Amino acid sequence: MARRRQQGERKGGGLLDYLGVGESAEGREAPARPEDIGDSVYGYIADRGAVSKEDLFEWGKSKGYKAADIMRAVDLLAKSGKIRRRLDDEGRLIYSAR
Known about the structure:
By secondary structure, the protein is α+β, with helices and mostly antiparallel strands. The chain is 46% helix and 13% strand. It has a domain of 65 residues: Arc Repressor Mutant, subunit A (Orthogonal Bundle).
């Protein structure tokens, strides 16, 4: 027979806990600011001269960055003229520092 929940006891986590807004989010690390991500992305590309999109995303994943944040940083860097996007001979997207 199933156990009854005591008054005030909840089943699983709540929606706010899932979204990272609830009480359990207190111990979590604050997300990186977009400027910090942009600086990190630019540093990674500049150190290597040219980086494929796949390599950039693997590196970003190892740093804990979200794909959307990486793409936002790449767009801002390309608009500011710090990096350039091009296709290589195999059709892969390459980012290079200027």
